[in-house]
Each structure stands twice: as structure tokens, then as C-alpha cells.
Amino acid sequence: MTNIIDIRQLQVKLQQRSILSGISFTLEAGEILGLVGPSGCGKTTLLNTLAGFIEQESGDITVGNTLLINKQNRVPPEQRNIGMIFQDYALFPHLTVEKNVGFGLDKLSKAAKQSRIDELLTLLELQELGQRYPHQLSGGQQQRVAIARALAPQPQILLLDEPFSNIDARLRNELMIEIRQLLKSLNMTAIFVTHNKDEVFTFADKIAVMFEGQILQLGSPIYVSQQPNSWQVADFLQLGSWLPFQLKEDAGKKLAETAIGTIELTREQSYANKSSTEDVNHSGKQLLLIKPKEIEVNIETDKNDNSQAIPNVIVNHIGITEHGYHYIVNSLDNSPELTFDRLSFYHDQVFSLGQQLSICIKHHQYLTFQQNKM
Amino acid sequence: MISGNRSKVWQIVSWATASILVLPIFIMLVSGFSATTELFSHLWDTVLPTYVLNTLYLAIVVGILSIFFGVISAALITQTNIKAKNILRWLLMLPLAMPAYLVAYLYTDLFDYAGPVQRNLREFFGWESPADYWFFDIRTLFGAGVVISLVLFPYIYMLARTAFEQQDQNLHRASRLLGLTTFQTFYKVCLPLARPAIAIAVSLVLMETLADFATVQYFAVNTLTTAVYDTWLGYGDLSTANALASLLTLMVFFVILFEQKARLKQRHQSNRPTRGNHIIVLSISQQFFASLFCWALAVFGFLLPMFLLVLMALEYATIEQLDVLISTGFNSIELAIYTATIATLIAIVLVLYKRLHQDKYKAVPLNVSGFGYAIPGTVLAMAMLATFGPLDGFINEMAVKLSIEEPGLILSGTIFAIVFALVVRFSAIANGTISGGVEQISQSIDLAPPSLGVKQLKSLFTVHIPLLKSSIFIAWLLVFVEAMKELPAVLLLRPFNFDTLSTQIYQLISDERLEQGAIGAILIVAFGLIPIIWLNKSEDKV
Amino acid sequence: MFKKIVSVLAFTACFAVNAAQEVNVYSYRQPFLVEPLFKTFTDKTGIKVNVVFAKKGMAERLKREGKHSPADILLTTDISRLIELQDNGLLQAVNSKNLEEAVPAQYRSADDTWFALTTRVRNIYSAKRLGKIDFNYEDLAKPEWKGRVCTRSGKHPYNVALVASMIAEHGEAGTLAWLEGVKSNLARKPQGNDRGQVQAINQKLCDVSLGNSYYFGNMLSDEKQKVWADSVYINFPNQSNRGAHVNISGMAMAKYAPNEDNAKALMEFLVSVPAQQLYAETNMEYPVRKGVNASKLVASWGEFTADKLPLEVIAKHRKTALKLLDKAKFDL
Fold first, then answer.
1. Minimal-distance CA residue of chain B relative to C215
2. For residue A374, what are the contacts with CB-CB under 8 A and spacing of at least 6?
């Protein structure tokens, strides 16, 4: 397999401000990459830079092994062979569906153009709508036209800017699967931007989490969610809740002292915040990433039972989900370093709001992070 | 976004066009700098402070009155169940078709002490002299302000009405749910939201007011423009005249800054327009006063002057006049077509240059090319002569050197100079209209063609220009009408034996014989109605 | 876009003047006043007359056009314009016996650069209801006329020339006092034109006004305006002393006139007996040529004595007159 796109040390500045720095990654043919990250992290800028709407400050972009784009060799967007689906679809309101789809096909002969249009309309099940105008279509139909139009000139890469944000939540999942299958069947390489992590897990082969103009982590969605390499990645992907702790060493054992008791860190992996400075240990908080399934509640059986565990949290929020009741609890311990207020877990049993519970953390592969001050 | 040589060409064309359009203004400013202080200080010691104050008062009166007329009528039409709404909707735009100097003439004539209205009143009541009764004096600053406002308020009415109608209806709903009445909602939500649009319209009105020479003259009101005339024609001191005109331009410049600021604040309009929703139901007395207000505007701004013109035409029209009318009408149309076409083309180039290029100063050509709107036509004509006179001289000298026949005054002595002056003067209108159209196009539409492998320059003809079709057409029509109405620049720059409808009417007016030009005046107004009807139609389609 | 401009250029080039038998006139005078004369001239000589009319900025246009200007002849309605053109070196002398014979020395420049065509008097109109009165211009400042005087803008060339003649007679301080006196007597702010003042007298807004002689004739021949004119007397002021202030309409040849011969022919035609008669009949002005009579109507207003003040003096005092008008805030 060959790399369809190869990006090295890409840097972008807008109005003297660095927007992207040190972006490097490659994609092979047919791979779908999802770009996620908080707003303002540079996802859309990266997309626009790849498309050629924004000029890079430095670094190389190689498209299809042959087309090298850098500061010296600027390639205008129309020569990059990169397609794009815009967030608002950018369908030409004055052209019919057919004309929209055929817009980028002027180099073809008339007959070839028509057959390509027909092919795409069929592929996207738009045959009946060829003579309609964009405003006569539903949101989903508009999106399919946008996809057909972008695919028509046979781009090497397809860029999608929040493609599903305008779609009804109920249809979204179905549509994502449908489009993913389409792209896969065409072996189309695609990069899409989203702020919704669920879309990534459904749609992408790879995920890149961006933060402040950098890619913090890139990998398969499963790997990234199991092994987040920084606090930001885990936090953005909402992999669990945060439990503050203080590290203690006792007879060679590493102990994490928390508001709900001390935990022995046996299989600990610790990550520092990537974009923070070197002396993270002193500036930030130490945090344990606790996935909901690692939390165990010590059920009260008898009120007079002395062996009963001392309550250490108080229920702050109750929700009902398909996984059972969802609880968010606050710590009862008020020591400023360790107090927490958003520990989240699911449980089958009903607790009441304000009820005090005793919880503990199951033994698992602990993930510890350093949160630098924001 | 656009790269390569063509982009360079575009850039050069844009900057060059803008520079050419500002050149006359630049020459005016430079000439102003060389003014001697002697005459200026004489004027300052005597009449200039009054002129400046009058100018400011006039601007304030027109500003307040036209906001009062325009915003209230727009509100009544969009927010209430006022009767005959569908007729009033477009009737209130019609005063725009009336040249201000024409209305000024008609009204000063009509409401003057010696005019028919007061004369008949006196006869009816047996009054003998001015001491016997009170009647407003039309030839005052306030009278001028009222009449100017009556013909210019539709700018505000139109923009405010559109702003009201395009507001997101959820905002109104939210306001109602938060416990505000419809009236409070209008006052606290709609009006503040429409403020930027109103500010833009007010700036247009103020620019027209400041640049006006002909209208205030009928009202015997002396403004800064009077000073420009006095220094130039009376004292024969063109430099000081230019300095005063520069002062005027400076005032207008502040108006432009104000307008630009307003534009920045203009919020994104929603695609959930409110037309037809949350109507305020008027009580009977409210209905009466609201109708009275709107109909009074329509009557005094358009119907009455039109009626007077038609009366005159019926009484005085002859076949010979019609004959002359055809040739002068043709001249007018010809000038207006050239002006409208060139101004529109320039506007397209400059607007799209600003939109599609990434140059740091990409907005500059567009902005500076609109300055001419601020310059009174006569001053502009002088600047034209100062620019093209020497250029013609140079061309003729070159011709002599190359031993070809001297071409004569091919620039300053032909309709070239008129068309150029009109383009300089009215570019702002075309620019504004087409800019407005471009703002409606989603940014991603710019990016789509290159992402499909189509060069942006090529996509202009398949995407942007078709999308801008109606804005371009409206821009063309608006400039066309303004060019038909424009007077001073044409008067001063025209070649031999060249008359337009407006110069003909002006000559007749200056001889108090408008009656014989009434058909011509009706014709100008009729042409002015075309774009208004079109505007109304295109708005209804949305 | 450039194609478009080029085509406009090509089009406008068609308008550039070509040198057939023709003569080009820049006119401050209303076209309908002079067109019948030109028509007669063309019929007689075959020389086509091209006209541009503008009240404002004609001198400036001529100056800017320089030696390539197509203008041959300039027609003005006021002595000051002629002098201004002369001072700017935009005129050339015309040596013509015909012109010298036709135009009295008082009404042409010593160096033959300009010639008057007609003269017009700055009259005082007074309401018939007051009976016949002998006026001096000076009377308009007298307190007895308080609130009874009407006039057009003081800055109008006709009034400026009158003020200039007052300066020649009374000096600056005397004239300023007079202006202030007139101003305090005004029934209303200066406005409108000369006919409008007569209309105001008719409507009893005021009793006296300043106005040029020919307007009276024009009003009498207009159905609607006749009523106004019938309610006033036309008075020739200062008949017992220096005489009534007289201004001229005039003509001159442009310095770079391309059609000198035709221009000369037209100028000579304009002072010829038939042309002067036509002027007298249609425009109600006093023909400048001795021996040509004013129209019957104009003659019926009676003989008058004209102020002998040289026209150059009036032109000389023009700027001072403007300054005094500013000082008196006459129009405000």
C-alpha cells in the first residue's frame, strides 16, 4: 500500500499567530481519518490548508506520492486533486443537481460527463432528483449531492468538514455507515473533521486528537481510547472521570492517596501533558482516569453493621440510561487537593439524591495523568 | 485563493481602477491645500460659521426626520396590521424616483407666500397680509430638511423594512416568552437588531444631503455648498473653493466611517424570516393615525408632486416638446446606460477582488472607489476638467509630435468626461448593492469550485456572476436612475448641442417654466420607478 | 471591461468637433433666448452654430481646455464674467469696423476684446397701490420701507453689480451701511428670482423689489404672470442724479478660437440691425446699437438716464461687493 497523503512538519500562521505547528502524518489509500479536538484547535484550518485555501508557513504536503506542496511550490486548490464536502454543502443554488454534480467535469467530453453524472447519481441514489434545485431537497439529499459532486472529478482524497452536523441525530448513524461503506467500496481516502467523538468511532479508521494546533495522538480509535497519551486526549474523548490523588512511596510501593481512600498503583501508566512544560510535577494536579466500569459501590446491607464501609461520596446527579442509572458523585472529603465533584458511574440500583455512598476503585491498569494549570 | 498571473492582473486592474476613480478627488484635495488664507479668513469672519452650522443643522434635521419617517413606516408595514399594507409597501419606496431638486422647486412654488396654497387660503378667509395669519415658511432650513427627508427617507424605509423582515423569528418568540408585549419586543429586540441597517441607510441619506447643491438653493438656505459656489464663481478662487469642498468631503468621510462601523456590527440575518408573524393589532384610533402617517408620506413624497407634474403636462404639453423630448431623452438614456454598465462592471471587479483575494489591503480599492459619492456634482465636474484638460493637452501635443491630426479634446470635451464623472459619483451605489449580494453568498461557495478542480476565475462566470445576477441588475438600475437624475456634472461637462432630460428641465426651472418640461420630468420619474418596482418584486420573491 | 471603455472612447470620438462650416458658442445665456438668432444666422450664412449652455463654471472649463478648446464665442449675461475672462487672458481682440460702428465705446472694451449686445436696467418695482414714486436705490435703506422690500439673493450677479456701482458712488463704508439698511427692511430673506419678487408684491407680501427691466416685459407676455406685472410700476431709479444702474449682456471671442472667421461673422451678425431688432423684440432688452429701437412695450416704459459709470469699474468692485454682502450677512 502506498501513502496517498504524507504531511511533514506542517506549520500554518494566520495574522502572525501560529495556528498549526509540527503536524505530521500519513494516510494510506482507503483510510479514513477523523480529526477531533476542542473548538479552535485548528482542525478546520488543517483541512483548509490541505485543500489549498490557506497557505502553509512551512512543511511539506505530498499528495499521491508525486505532488509535493510546500512554500516554494504552491499548488492552487484546483490542481491538488483534493475534493471537499463543506459543512453547509456549498451547493450552487442556481444549478440543478445534475449541473452541480457535473460542475467539476468540464474537462470530459459531453458524453463522458453525462455518463459520469449518471453513474454518481445512481451510486448515491439520486437518479430521480437530477433536475431539482438544491433548495428543493432535504438535508440528507443535499449531503448526498455534495458527496456526488465532490467524488465526480475522482479526487485522491476527500475532505469532509463536519459532514454530519446538519443531519437529524436519528438518521445520522445510519447515514454514517452508508457513506463509510461507499467510501470503502471506492477505496477513497478521506479526512473528516468533527467535534463529536461518537462519529469518529463509527466512521473513522484512524483518529487524530488535536489540541492547540498540534496532533496530540493519532491511532486507531480503539487504541487511542484505551491508551490515551495525555490528559487532553482522555478528557476530550470523555473516557472517564478524574480522580485527583497524591503520590506516596511506601516500602517500594507506589500509593495514590485519594479522597475515597488509598490505592496501590501496581500497573500504573503515567502520562504527562504533552504540550505542557517540563516541570509538570509541581505545577499541575495528579489525576487518575477512572472509567465508570472501574467503580464499585459498597452496598449498605445493615445500618448497624459496624463492618460497613464509611461513606466517602454523596450523590449529586441521577440520570437514566440504557446502561442503568447514571450517577455523578462528589467527594465528602474536603481537603483542597483531593476534593472532586464529577465522578461518574452506572449502577443498577436506585440511590437517592444526596445519599451518601461508599465507593472504591477496582483493581485495573491505572492511567495517571498530569493536569497542568490551564 | 486565486493564484498565478491572472490574480496579479486582477489585482493590478483593481488598484488601477480605484486609483483612476480617486484621482479627481485627489486633485481637488491638492488644489485645496494651495488655498490662500486671506479669503478663507474673510469668510470665517463673516458668513462661514453660519454656513457650517446650517450644514450641520440640515444634516441633523434630515437625519432625524428621515429616521422618523423611514423607521416608523417600516415598522408599521412589517409589524402591524395596518390597512392597505400591500399598496403602502411599495408606495413608500416611490419618492426615491423623484429628483430632490424637482420636488424642491414644486414645493417652494406651491407653499410659498405667493404660491397657490397660501393665495387660496387668503382669498377664502379674506386675509390681507402675512400679519393676518400664520403659515409655515417653506423657505427655511427646516423646510428644506422636511422636503429632502421626504424624498430620501425611502432609503431608510427600505433597509429597515428588510432588516425587520429578516430577523430571526425565534428572537421574537423568545422575547414574548420572557414576558414582553409585542410593542416592547419591537422596541427592545427588533429595533436594536435593525440598528446597523438603519445606520447604513442614514449614512446614504446624509451623504446625499451634504453633497446637495441644487435643492437647498430653492429654499434660500445657505450651506457649505453655497460657500463653495461663492468662492469659486463669485470670488473666482478655485483653490479656496476646493479647500471648502475638501472640508465637505471630510464631513462625508466621517459619515462613511460611521457607515463602515455599522456594517461591521451588522449581524448575521437568519433564514427564518419573520414576515407575517407576530403582528401587532392596532386599535381603531391607532389604525387611523398609522394610516394617516404612511399615506401622508406617500402623498407628499410622491403622489402630490407627480400629480402637479401631470397637471402641468396636460396643460402645456405640445407635439414640438415631444419631439425635443425624444432626442434629449435618448441622450439621457445613452449616458445612463454607459454609466450604469461601467459602474457595475467596476463594482463586480472590485467587490470580487475583495472577496476572493487574500491580499492584506484587498478592501481598499472597493472602499476608496466609493468616495466620489460624497462629492457635489459641480465640484466633481471641476475636478474632471482639471484632470482631463491637461491630459487632452498632452494627447494633442503627442499627436503633433507624431504628426498625426490633432484629435482635439477627446476626453474633456466629449461625453467621456460626463460618463467618467457619473461613474466616479455613483460607483458607491453599485459597490454597495453588489457587496450586499456577495455577502449573501456562503463563503464555502467560493471554495467549492477549486475543490472540484475548477479554476476560481473560471468559476466566476459559472457561479458568482449567475448568483449575483439580481444584485447586479439592481445595481445597474439604481445607477441608471441616478445618472438620469444627475444634473450639475452633466451641465458643466456636456459637449455642444447635447441636452439631457435633467439639463433641459433645469434650464426650464431656472427660467420658472417647468410647465414646459413637465413631460420630461415625468419621464425621469418614470424611469426611476423601474428599479423600484423591480426591487419590490425581487424582495417579494425571497 | 477595458473593451467597454475603448468602445465608449470610440463612440465619444464621434462627438469630437470636426471642422466643417461651423462656429462654437459657450453660452451663459438661456438657449431659448439666443436660438432664434442663431437660426437666422445659419439660414443666412450656412454656418452651423453649436451651443453649450451653462450658468456656472464656463470660464473654468475654457481655462482648463486651454489651447485645444473648441470654443469660438462666449456669450455672457453680466459684465463681470467678461472681465473675468479678459483678466484670465482667455479672449482675443476682434478688429472689425462693423463691431466698432455698431457698439458705442461705452459698451465695449478699449482693447476690443469684448462687446455688449444689449443693456438691461436694474429697476425698482413698486406696488401700484402706492402710486407713482420716484426712487433712488439709496431709498431702499430708509426706515420708511421697513418690512416692505423684497429681493433675490444678494450674491446674484445682477445684485452684485448693483452693489459694485454703489461702492463706486458711496465707498465701502457707505455701501455697507446701505446694505445693512436694506437688509433690515427686507420683508423676507432673499430668495427666488426677480419675477418671484413681483409676485410677492402682487400678493402684498412686500411693496418694492429689485428686478431687471426685461422681466417686466416677459411677465406681461405670459398669461399667468401678467397679473403680477399688472400690479406693479416699473421705476427707473436715480433719474434725478447719476442715473439707473445698467448691466450688459455681451460677447467675446475665445483666444484659441478654431473658427475665427465664422466667429467674427457671427459677432458682426449679432450687432447687425435685424439681429438687434430681434433681441429687442424677443428678449425685451435694450439693443446696444444706436438707431435700433427698443420694442414698443419696452419703449412704453419711457426714456431713462443710465448711470455713466464705466463697466470696468463695476467689474473692479465686484469682489469688494461680495465681501460687503458677506459682511452684512445679506442673505442670512
1. B511
2. none
